[in-house]
Amino acid sequence: MTYWQAEVETMSRADLEKLQLEYLKKTIRIATNSPFYNKIFKEHHITSDSICSLDDLKKIPFTTKEDLRNNYPFGMAAIPIQQCVRLHSSSGTTGNPTVVLHSAKDLNEWANQVARCMYMVGLRDTDIFQNTSGYGMFTGGLGFQYGAEKLGALTVPAAAGNTKRQLKFITDFGTTCLHIIPSYATRLAEVMRESGIDPRRDTKLHTVCIGAEPHSEEQRLRIEELLGVKAYNCFGMSEMNGPGVAFECKEQNGMHIWEDYVIVEIIDPVTLEHVPEGEVGELVLTTINREAMPLLRYRTRDLTRIISGDCPCGRTHKRIDRFKGRSDDMIILKGVNLFPIQIETVLMKFKELGNNYLITIDQDEMQIEVELSDLFTDDYSVLQRLTKEITRQLKDELLLTPKLKLVGRGSLPVQEGKAVRVKDLRKF
Ligand code: ADP
Ligand code: ZN
After folding, report:
1. Minimum-distance ligand 1 atom for the alpha carbon of 210
2. Mean pLDDT, consecutive 10-residue segments, the chain of 428 residues?
3. Would you put residue 394 in left (φ > 0), alpha (ψ -120 to 50) or beta?
């Protein structure tokens, strides 16, 4: 069997859209019970009967993170709280926390989405899956846990940090697959090398699922090379449950987004109109198979585009491209707009460079500190030539000239969770 759920994964566009409309109408009926949507539906005269085609989705206003914050904690619930069995809350690092509620059915559907993703990249019940995500509120922990159990894999809920222990589990248990944040994957590979472990010789690792933070194609290739694995990009966000929203298939060319769970729109964040297919814009998602807390036209703030054309894997669900970043990650410097990922793309091409870097913005200056690979020389003239070449390539990419500083390995801070790559001193 090639697919986890062949019928739905390869459904024709017409059938998929019919299913989406039916699910959308049902979602509107459920959402009417939430105080937040009830008010909006009244104001805009929306009922499930007034939505006659997918195009009618446009009649519904967008929902934002601000709405979630303003209705904290339970103002978005569409079923009685007694019928909810879990809540996840965002860290609140960028403001008040947000809450997402789940019923038992919601959790089961979420696990199904994750299992579908894992199956898609070749994982089976014979695999040993180690999850290096934090458990608790961070959805990468429990989200993958239940998905992997549904798939039938043997799960190792190692949780975040304690790299030496991670390595012991990988070697002792014969772990074949990891779920890991990209910045931590390179860190793990470094510690492996320091400990004399050759991943190809000493471990059974063959697959890693990487996500939760922006990363470049170059970083993916590095992770594959360092760990001797295939690395698949996975996208999730707490508001959309967590992991399992979209995932790469074996083609590694865009992430299939499960359209029996969400309706995808890409909008221009300024005009709020749809962009032509294939163009980059803000991802907007509508949950159509969730009951505790449906979200309609949720503005994710993530920037991506739809990849046109059929995927050779046979799945018909749309593919979204690797993320350019979040709209709030955009750096504006000397009138130039740029994203940290553009810098990473250049840096990761240089074998002489390590995996950790830090961008500091002060007034109208950008400084990039990047660690050298420890295999590299400390010959001053060689380093000078290297600095010049990297700066030239950065200038071509960014259209401005950053100050580049090559530093020794281990000199930049490492985070346990998502990597912090940018320090913007103008914001303090
Ligand atoms: P928080 O908003 O506190 O960071 P989440 O864990 O819900 O909490 O983070 C979701 C966000 O993480 C997404 O909106 C996106 O910006 C980022 N993200 C998740 N997966 C990926 C991925 N595969 N590539 C790039 N960014 C990702
Ligand atoms: Zn595919």
Report:
1. 23
2. 94 98 98 98 97 97 96 96 96 78 98 98 98 95 98 97 96 98 95 96 98 94 98 97 98 98 96 96 98 98 97 98 90 90 94 94 94 83 94 94 93 87 88
3. alpha
Given this model, what pLDDT does residue 92 score? 62
Q: Which ligand 1 atom sits closest to the C-alpha of 92? A: 3
Domain locations in the chain?
A: 6-102+249-326, 107-236, 331-424
For residue 323, which atom of ligand 1 is closest to its CA? Answer: 25
Can you tell me the distance from the alpha carbon of 91 to that of 120, in angstroms, rounded to the nearest whole number?
30
| Domain 331-424 bears CATH identifier 3.50.50.60 | no
| DSSP class of 63 | B
Confidence (pTM) = 0.94
User: Are the CB atoms for 374 and 409 separated by under 8 Å?
Assistant: yes
Task: Name the DSSP class of 244.
Answer: T
The residue whose C-alpha atom lies closest to atom 5 belonging to ligand 1 is: 237
Tokens of 6: 């062949």
274 Cα–ligand 1 center, Å:
22
Question: Do 6-102+249-326 and 331-424 fold alike per CATH?
Answer: no
Tokens matching residue 343: 């810098």
CATH class of the 6-102+249-326 domain in this structure: alpha beta
CA of 309 to the centre of ligand 2 (A): 11
CATH ID of 107-236, from 3.30.1490.20, 3.40.50.12780, 3.40.50.720, 2.60.40.150? 3.40.50.12780
Q: Whose CA is nearest to atom 13 of ligand 1?
A: 237
Ligand nearest to the CA of 234: 1
Q: Phi/psi class of residue 71: alpha, beta or left (left: φ > 0; alpha: ψ in -120 to 50)?
A: alpha
Closest CA to 57 of 34, 23, 30, 14: 23
Least distant ligand from the CA of 255: 2
Q: What is the pLDDT of residue 96?
A: 77
Unique residue bearing structure tokens 């707009």: 337
Mutate-to-test residue for ligand 1 from 93, 235, 285, 301, highest number of ligand atoms within 8 A of CB: 235
Could you say which ligand is closest to the alpha carbon of residue 231? 1
| Whole-number pLDDT of residue 94 | 63
Ligand 1 pocket, residues with Cβ under 6 angstroms: 90-91, 211-214, 233-238, 300, 302, 323, 326
Structure tokens given for 93: 């690092």
Of 156, 10, 304, give the one whose Cα is nearest residue 1.
10
| Look-up of token digits 């989705």 | 57
